[in-house]
Write a structure and sequence with these properties.
Strand content: 5-15%
Number of helices: 8
Order of helices and strands: HEHEHEHHEHEHH
Distance between the termini: 53 Å
Shape: globular
Number of strands: 5
Helix content: 40-55%
Largest sheet: 5 strands, parallel
Length: 216
Amino acid sequence: MHCTYGQDWANLKRYEKENAELSGSAHNEKRVVFMGNSITEGWLRTHPAFFEGKPYIDRGISGQTTPQMLLRFRQDVIDLKPETVVILAGINDIAQNTGPMTLEETAGNIFSMAELAKVNGIKVVLCSVLPASDFPWKQEMEPGPKVVKLNSMLLKYAKDHDIEYVDYYTPMVNDNLGLKKELGDDGVHPNEKGYAIMEPLVEKALSKISNKTSKK
């Protein structure tokens, strides 16, 4: 069967050069890797000021599902020796970008990323999936209720494992379980106003982790 992804299904080459330049942890640099899909990739493009002057590393790849992220997690997160990883993933699984997946399989891949991070001494921030009531590229998937269910699984895991959880969903959802119109142009991807809601929420979680670490 012909594979449309060629030989690099997880897009391992995407950040190869940037990773090589970052190899090893800079002295006292508390790196934070943002692992995700187009929502993470678009963050740097839409609001680069959020990343400027901070040890924030964007490792989002548009269209990716959690199995693809899990495959590249070692090179794009662990090998960069960050203090913390921020994981925002799952919406493309619901869209079936790489084929049908259950919510349990998606959650399991996210949990595996968290566990890989923790065993390597990396703190974890788990993020809720953003609301979406439809996909422009794949109609009639009815993602709204699935996002709610996946987020409840992620929240439970975070509570059970003492992991910081960032709830982007609640302040961004409309009455139809979709993204508020003013926060994104296509109902899935945030615009600058959307990222302006997300940024203080994730920074609050990062500062909590930093405070916990400094008290030890």
